[in-house]
Amino acid sequence: MSTDARLNLSAGILSVSVALILVLAKLWAFGQTGALSVAASLGDSAMDLMISVGGLAAIAYAARPPDEDHAFGHNSAEDLAALGQSLFILISAGVIAFAATRRLFSDAPPPLQAEGRGIAVMILSIVLTIALVAWQRRVIRRTGSRVVRADALHYLGDLVPSIGAILSLWASDRLGLQVIDSVVALGAAGMLTVGAFRIGGSAWNALMDRAAPPEMLAEIGQIAREWPGVQGFHDLKTRTAGSKVFINLHIELDGDQTLNEAHAIGAALRRAILHRYPKSDVMIHKDPFGDMPHPDDPSK
Predict the structure, then answer these.
(1) Verdict on whether the full-model pTM lies above 0.85
(2) Most buried of 48, 63, 196, 259 (most Cβ within 10 A)?
(3) Using 50, 70 and 90 to split pLDDT, how confident is the model at 173?
(4) Domain of 234?
(5) β-pair partners for 238
C-alpha cells in the first residue's frame, strides 16, 4: 500500500473514532439539557459517523491497485462516497430545520436545563473537531483525496453549530432567552445545506468525467508548447476520478527522427507533467508534424 493510501486511511480511521466519541457525548448532553441546538449538533455528528464509515470504506476500496476489470483503478469510489455524503447531510439539515421551526413557533417550547454540562460537552466537541480537521488538512495537502476533503469540510462546518449551541445554552442559563436555541439550529441547517451542495456538485462533476480546471489545462499546454522537440500539440483531454486526473495528449514531432528519439521526447514530457501534477495519469500519443487526418478516421 502506498504512503498516500496509508495517510488517507489514517484520516478515515481518526474521523470514525472522533465521530463515535462525539455521538456518545452529545447524546448524553442532549438527555441532560433537552436543547434543540445540542440535538442539531448530535444529529450532525450521527450523520458524520455514518458518512465517515462510508468514507473509510471508499478510501480502502479506492486504494486497491488496478486490476483486470478496473484497468484505471478504483478512484471513482471516492466520488460515489462523497455524493452519498452530500445526500446524508441534506437529510440531516432538513430534519433539523423542521424541528427548529416547529419549536420556534410553539406556544410552550420545552425548557432547557443543565446548561453547564451541555456547554462542557460542546467545548470537548470543538477541541476534538479542530484536532481532526488539522490532521485531515495535512493529509489533503499530501494526497488530494476528495473523500477526506469532503469529510474535513463538514467537520469544519460542525464548529459553527457547536459554538452556536454554547451561545444558546449560555443565553438560556444567564438570560432566559430559549428562542436563540431554535435560531442557532436553523442556522446550522442552512450551513449544512450549503456544504452538501458543494460536496455533491464536486463529486457529480467527477462522476460525469468533467475536465480538469482551466488553469491546469493551460499549464499543461504551456509545458507541452515549450518542450524541446515538440512542434505542436492537439487533443488535450482530461477527466477526474477521485483524487486522480487522467490526461491524454497528442504531440507533434519531426517525422524524420528515429523512434527512439521520438520516444525520448514523449517520455521526458510525460515525466515533466507528472512532476507538476503527481496525482495524475498521463498518456501521450506521438504524431508526425503536419500529418493530416486520414479520411477513414472516425469524426470527433
Answers:
(1) no
(2) 48
(3) low
(4) 214-288
(5) 247
